[in-house]
Write a structure and sequence with these properties.
This protein has 204 residues and is an all-alpha fold. It has one domain: Up-down Bundle (Four Helix Bundle (Hemerythrin (Met), subunit A)). Helix content is 75%, strand content 0%. The chain is globular and about 45 Å long. 31% of the residues are buried.
Length: 204
């Protein structure tokens, strides 16, 4: 049973993520926020448990990738379908987010015939953390901050560039990769540099 815990958590995220749309449509923050926290917790725990118990697998990586994309897609979708007044430029930012992730998936599929909507690079993890902190804001504050969302989409664009460059440099596809940019920084600083230490402190 223990060896299946990470995959169960990832599968739970896949099944629960669409439910975010229900309290969002009727705007029930008291239901939405606890559900959001539970789903996001599975994103944190599945990887940590898999790494610490040495339960990493190709199936687990695929479930995690699907779960990540579906969770954040539904989270952004929940903002779009909420009764909050949403400016057109906010919807454009959301559309750009989806477009960038599909672009990475498209490039990966063309080169390796593998379907992955997200990568597990350093930039990807930072991107996910930033989005996870931004999404609940409308349900707490009652409004959407365009500058914050626009800044996030700008960071997502950097992640997409790094992700595509990383895929282009790969000879065989590896879902968990530090990424081209992170590898260059670590090469200059060494494994004991502040960049690598901060990353492991936050995510591992």
């Amino acid at each position: 049973m223990k060896q299946h815990i990470p995959n169960i958590l990832s599968a739970g995220r896949i099944l629960l993520s669409p439910l975010l749309l229900i309290p969002a449509v009727v705007y029930r923050p008291a239901i939405y926020l606890p559900l959001y926290i539970i789903i996001f917790s599975t994103d944190i725990l599945d990887g940590k448990i898999a790494r610490r118990l040495h339960l990493e697998s190709e199936l687990g990586a695929k479930l995690d990738s699907i779960g990540d994309f579906l969770f954040f897609a539904c989270a952004l979708g929940s903002v779009a379908v909420s009764p909050l007044v949403i400016e057109r430029r906010v919807l454009i930012c959301i559309a750009i987010f989806f477009g960038l992730h599909f672009l990475i998936a498209f490039v990966t599929f063309i080169k390796f015939k593998a379907i992955h909507f997200t990568m597990h690079t350093y930039f990807a993890k930072l991107d996910e953390l930033a989005l996870a902190l931004i999404i609940p804001i409308p349900f707490i504050m009652g409004r959407i901050s365009f500058p914050v969302l626009a800044a996030y989409v700008g960071f997502t664009a950097l992640y997409a560039i790094d992700g595509i460059a990383t895929v282009a440099a790969m000879k065989t596809y590896v879902s968990s990769h530090k990424g081209i940019t992170a590898e260059k920084i670590i090469a200059k600083q060494g494994e004991d540099g502040w960049f690598n230490k901060i990353f492991y402190f936050i995510f591992y």
